[in-house]
Fold each of these.
Amino acid sequence: MNIDKINHAGHLQPVNDKVAVKPNDTVATNIGSDSVTISHAAMQAREAALVQKAIASASDVRTDRVREVKEKLARGEYDNPSNEILNHVAARLTTAIKNG
């Protein structure tokens, strides 16, 4: 069975060279003017979205605190931490593990 002959499938029609496509010679000179107005609420929403994006991309690491702790470690101030410091660190670690 030969199905490529059904309804002249695969048959190409010759190109008519006598009809040429001409570029559009006319250009619209002045259609009018458009304007856009952005509401105050939309501008506030955009500002809020930018702030949220900045907060989301910010690091949770406070480099100033890390530097301070490193300096204290270097001076030996954390060699014998108090129970208060140990409890604070344990609580922070527990929270971090739970929130994972």
Note: The chain has a mean pLDDT of 78.
Amino acid sequence: MLLMSRIVKSGLIQASCDFSPEDSLIKIKQDMIDKHIPLIEDAGKQGVQILCLQEIFHGPYFCAEQSIKWYDTVERIPDGPTVKLMQEYAKKYNMVIVVPIYEEEITGVYYNTAAVIDADGKYLGKYRKHHIPHCSPGFWEKFYFRPGNLGYPVFETAYAKVGVYICYDRHFPEGARALGLNGAEIVFNPSATVAGLSEYLWKLEQPAHAVANAYFLGAINRVGTEAPWNIGEFYGQSYFANPRGQIVSEASRDKTELLVSDLNLDDIQEVRNVWQFYRDRRPDSYGDLVHP
């Protein structure tokens, strides 16, 4: 008997953050959430089964400066208002949603985190960004985030086994491999990165992770420039790569939009039958990789 293909309709949202420096933090945050709601509803109406938003989606990339005022934008996970709101939309559309926000663990201890919500609205868990950059121009993240401490979890959602890697993490193949070893079928990388810094790596590193680990990868980048910092153009081009490392769908460079793609999870087995990277690994010889 022939089995039906495991096709999962997946979506990525890339968006600009248009705000005035004079706006209150409450207004900036609410405006960004309001901007995303129609896109989330569009995804639901199109039948998207798994949706991922961009890095710290509810505001600008504030790491372009070092100011304690942005600490006031943190929320608890899962008890904060944004995750609670996304749980409602997940349940409404029977859609898994990956929600990257600025997380408060306890007062004064903050993380760059993505919450994962299942299709029934249930909170499944979270991933905290491991690798924290602190470099010019305007990526002062150690001022805002502690390094992640929850490992590389893979979440058993209604439609697929989902892993998350966040922005700067993508430069480190070790975590990408850990997600594969933990069973990920789709890995999402919500990001905020600008032209002139990383663009030449954007379509190189993550397809390489996809093929080295034989899973699908969804890469998300915001769009536009953000005053008053103007550290560069967030160049969009969110995309899905398949287990062969091929980019199968891609968003524009400069528009807020929803990218939707059908991912056939049966491709994972097909690729692993050909490229036996997991069989031929030599972890017994890799000990020096984890020396400080």
Note: Residues 157 and 196 are 37 Å apart (CA to CA).
Amino acid sequence: MRWQRTGPPRWLAGRCAAFVLTLFAVITLNFALPRMMPGDPITALQDPESSLYVSDQASRAALSHYYGLDQSLIVQYGRYLRGLATGDLGWSIRLNAPVSLLIQHRILWTVLLIFPAMLAASLVSMVAGLHAGWHRGSPLDRGLIVLFAGIRTLPAFFLGVLALLLFSVRLGWFPLAGAQTPFAHYRSPWGALADLLHHWALPALVLTIEMLGGQFLLMRNSVISVLGDDFMLVAKAKGLSDRSLKYRHALRNALLPFVTVLSIQLGFAVTGSIFVEAVFAYPGMGTLAFQAVSARDYPVLQGVFLVFTVSVLTANLIADLAYARLDPRVRTR
């Protein structure tokens, strides 16, 4: 029996090839972008007000040579690629520690902040968008549009500062900074968990609100677009209830573009988390990157941005596969 090549494997190979090419481009940009900023890691050593200040010119030159900053960009790029090939993300100039170890200590905090916020934002925007699209043109629809469009225009750092001033400074409901109470002694694991949640709740709430606007508008428009499709007309002609029409037919088909945008939303969540973590002094990767920018700590910036971008690219690939699963027509293109 003669076997024939089918569409899905070729389609999958094309997606994987695009992923690899995009990853290589991201790695190159990841190396170049920190070096496009004014100054370099040695500049902080020349600032008397910096905690990293080094007064001796010979010592600065020795550090520059040690970290390879006195070499050409081609040589530095080659060292960077060789390090990635062996899993070496470099050594932090500011903190004098392996970048991989710094990321290992911070990444869990960021994951605990980003993914629950994405899940909450997705559920809220999905339900709100479904009802707004189903009742398009109604006062409920107009009110939700105004609310979520207004939220979408507010930057993450502005929401963070506003929430901090209101709920932490004014009302005193939440801590001002950090992820744990310093030097706290807990009588049980539940006490430690309660303290973590107390510090986590406000940053997570701000990040959730930051992601609501775009997802809501997409879900609403997706619902409206499927209401006039033939399958909806047939379902109505069969006499199905509004509940069945809304949840089993409209919602299921409106989820196709919504699944795709979730991977894109991860990129916005990463960007928003940097500002949110900086405002709340939350000890995640965003704070690590924010501190590395001021010190021009190239290895840390490269390591953090590489983890972020690879996560977003992987999420996009997974979204493509999920979209193809939900809509087999994609695999034949």
Note: The CA atoms of residues 113 and 204 lie 6 Å apart.
